[in-house]
Amino acid sequence: MLALLIGDTAQFWLGRYSGWALLGFLCRLSMNPETCILRSAESFYKRGKATLVIAKFIPGINTMAAPLAGSMKMRYGQFLQLDFVGALLYSSTFLLVGYLSRDFLAAVLTGFHAAGRAMEAVVIVALVVYAIYRAVQFARYKKYRVMPRIQVQELVARMASDEADRVQIVDVRSHGYYDIGTERIKGSIRIEPNNLEEEIKSLAKDKDIYLYCT
User: Fold this and answer.
1) Which of 40, 94, 185, 191 is the most exposed place for a label (fewest CB within 10 A)?
2) Statement to judge: residues 119 and 159 lie in one domain
């Protein structure tokens, strides 16, 4: 419990002071970095701060939850309470599973010792297969790792030119960084990134669309 809370606290304050720099670094380790933060933010959007209670059970979100909570300026006291409940639930679940299946685990370990080198070979093969799987997945998602971007000055110049009527700027900031009263780029429209399939239907088909997020 103490180890979990110390680790999550460190990530919380790193998220608070480094913000999206830390989140971006963590997502570069993901197979699909462009959706990494959005997926975690979507969980906060749907479940609220209670996401911290179940985050440790969800791959991907377990890494992002603490720094994301910090970057969203959640009060530390509130974070610590919810994270404590999550850590207690996580620890208790696996201790309970280990206790209930202790006889089975003991038999498995005995089998491992008896099999000796055969089990070593199985483990090595399993690791090689997993490494190949990860390499294939990274190659598959490689096209999503680099998104086309435009410099601010270039977009400003285009908005001031005769092509201004062909430009549509769209605000897609994640929940937690956007509310109804917040300022937007002049002339931009807002769509909710957690409801993209429906919202993109309203976008003009005859304009060049530029998105900006947090």
Assistant:
1) 94
2) no
Q: Which amino acid is located at 208 in the chain?
A: D
Number of domains in the chain: 3
Full residue range of the structural domain in which residue 195 is found? 152-212
Compute the distance between CA of residue 48 and CA of residue 67 in angstroms, rounded to an integer: 15
- Residue-level length of the chain: 214
How is residue 82 written in tokens? Answer: 């919810």
First to last CA, the chain: 33
Summarised one tens digit per residue, pLDDT across range 86-145 is 999 999 998 998 888 888 877 777 777 777 777 778 888 889 998 898 888 777 777 666
CA-to-CA separations, 170 to 68, 143, 151, 152, in angstroms, rounded: 23, 23, 15, 14
What angle (nearest 5°) sits at the alpha carbon of residue 182, between those of residues 179 and 185? 125
Place of tokens 């990274």: 138
Q: Which two tokens stand for residue 165?
A: 């009527």
